[in-house]
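Help! Submission page says 'invalid entity' but I think these are all valid:
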Amino acid sequence: MNLALRDIRHNLGRFLLTCVGLSMLLGVALAMVGIYGGVVDEALSLARGLKADLWVVEGGTRGPFAEASRIPGDAREAVARLPGVTAAGSVTFQTVEARHAGGSGNADTPDEDTVREQAGEAGRSRVGAVLRMQVVGYELDRPGGPPGILDGRGIAHGRLEMVVDRGAGVPVGAMVDMAGIGFRVVGLTTRAVSASGDPLAWITLRDSQDLQFRLRPPAARRALQGGGGALPRDTVNAVVAHLSPNADVEAVAGEVRRWKHFAALTAREQETVLTSSLVDRARKQLGMFTTVLLLVSAVIVALIIYTLTMDKVRDIATLKLIGAPDATIVALVMQQALLLGAVSFAGATVLLFAVKDNFPRRVLLGPEEIAGFGLVVFVISLLASLLGVRYALRIDPAQALGG
Amino acid sequence: MTMLVELAGIAKGFGQGEARVQALSDITLNVAAGEVVGLRGPSGSGKSTLLNLVACILEPDAGVLRLAGETVWEGKWSRADLRALRREKIGFIFQFHNLLPFLDATDNVALAMTLNGVPLREARTKARDLLDYLQVGRRAVAMPSKLSGGEAQRVAIARALANHPQIILADEPTAALDSERAQVVMDLLRQVAREQQAAVIVVTHDDKIFSRFDRLVSLRDGRIEGEHVSP
């Protein structure tokens, strides 16, 4: 006869109400875990999406995601000639605030409803809206391009076309204005975001160099009047390389490191840079919030169980008096704490999965994270029940006697 | 005549130094199988302390306590040993029945049996038989909150009898009942004592039931003041 279950069934309403409250609290804690997962995934999204085995960057730097890196565009030729390298491409990265400029004037131009429909889950952008994006410039048919096209096509004939993540909320056929230059969206990708969560956009290397280095007419005039010429425009942030499957990536990287003014990062080193520097603060912040929330949850579970135990003083005293062993008493208290934790954990998981797509940041929870969180809730419930167990074991059976 | 409860020279005090209160002094009392003994006395006379001693909740400072042939507290008695003794040999009836509110009448009775190792299904069958015996079988699946005072007390008596105890301790079992139901409960206790050859000790203030005891022991200031034997 399971006394804990029978007691819960007797006070089911109160128990479920308590579980709902605790579910919300645990849901927030679980959301923190999921947001951290999303931050890590987003941080690595760009680096992984480019599928580069090797990153060649400016000497003395840790690459374009950690600090400024500028190398000459012709470095790609040298990298491509290295033994083991199958392909190499120059890439640039810049964060821009663009403007959704509506359609192109063609008959294909979608109306706003179509814009929202095509843009899908994040299609909140209206014509005229400011879009913050990270723009990747790449060489057509070389490494560095968009990982996969969900809708539309890739950049085909070069200039003034762009592929953008659907998170930006602009549809295929829309025009996007960046620094006075109009780009036509020809394709959409999905789940391609920068380390800061901004959607990614791909344009040709040439266009990106124009965006980054071309002076506006007044500035160009001032530069000429000052005796300076135009800035060198064949500059890129990195060269990404694909290696043959049997190539030793460390050996190739070592070769590059011997060159003057260049550094090389393997794919793993690039991910380490991203997770250790860019994600580290988020990890600490979210970790702290999660810890605080779990501690609060533990205190609440402890207080609930303690109160439930106090409500049962006479019952527990009676049980002791009629000869119930300590194990029966401990099981009564501990099983209730574990059930409270288990039901609340299940509620928190269901609640979070129901609302996670409405979070402003991506919430990424895999089976491992959920199982790990469940284990933490189990331990918390177990520890929190100790206060109630201690109280229950101290109840004097004599309390069952007398009025 | 088999003596099931034997107290010889029992003394118990609480506190230390000047604050010490001597709750019981030199108590000698025997209760035989089949006998129903009442304990009466004013507040502070030591009735509850005496009941707690016989229930093995308190350890006496002096004297010998023998329950169903076992000398309690002689040698090492762990808390588990004392609970096992209570579980197997003592049945308890309380003033406010103390039924577990989350178990129905049957399971309240069956619980006492399962604690003693009886399988649940068998315990439930026996519990229903016991409830029938105490004429409350039709309320077998009722929760305690749905039982009247008299019905709840009968279920509590059934729980006390669940493991066929040799000793039954009742603490003011009729205090919450009207006089008619109080007489019924006392009749039941007398019937149980006779049929199961159990020793029954009842602590009471209820003068309406004084005539239903085989012996009525009066306590005052922690001592036995007198005994009245029913004709």
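Support: the input was valid. A stray whitespace character was the problem, and the output above is from the cleaned input. Chain B touches chain A at residues 48, 51-52, 55, 57-58, 79-80, 83-88, 92, 94-96, 98, 100-103, 107, 110-112, 114-116, 120, 143, 159, 171-172, 175 (CB under 8 Å).
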